[in-house]
Amino acid sequence: MSKHVFLTGPPGVGKTTLIQKVTQALKSSGVPIDGFYTQEVREGGRRTGFDVVTLSGNRGPLSRVSPSSDSSASRREYRVGQYVVDLISFEQLVLPMLRNVNHCGDTEKRICVIDEIGKMELFSQAFIQAVRQTLASSGTVVLGTIPIPKGKPLDLVEEIRSRKDVKVFNVSKENRNSILQDILAAVESCRK
Questions:
Q1: Reported pTM
Q2: 20 to 30 A Cα–Cα from 147, which one of 5, 83, 153, 190?
């Protein structure tokens, strides 16, 4: 029996869009839901980074393109490709929300949206710990996204992918417009 639902698929396939549609549907039917998603930041038609957006409406930078002449190697920088990760901003937005989800005394199961558990987010040891606690919490259903396996395996991602209590949907260009009801049904059955 699944307790959590995760979407996986290549970058840009529509995982976050599906998460947002599922979130709207659950919210409108009165399901307690909290969490965050990541959103592209674009300037002049090109991607310059990603923001973290919480379902309660807070927003902050997750990463930005690093200026190539930047020689700030003196402070610890977390990088993924051309992006520098703003760990402090990420943790300030996400960790209080995750702790809050885990400590709610609701009788009905809450949904916690975690989009995504990827390379940038996994620089945070506190985030890894909070995700594990949320997955272990009996009163919370996680609706999340994980990247497709590529390069060096990410420990937490593989741990989630192989969990017996996780249902993973593979999102593709072919199925992304027809998979919404299946994801909603899976989340609803996790709440029972």
A1: 0.92
A2: 190
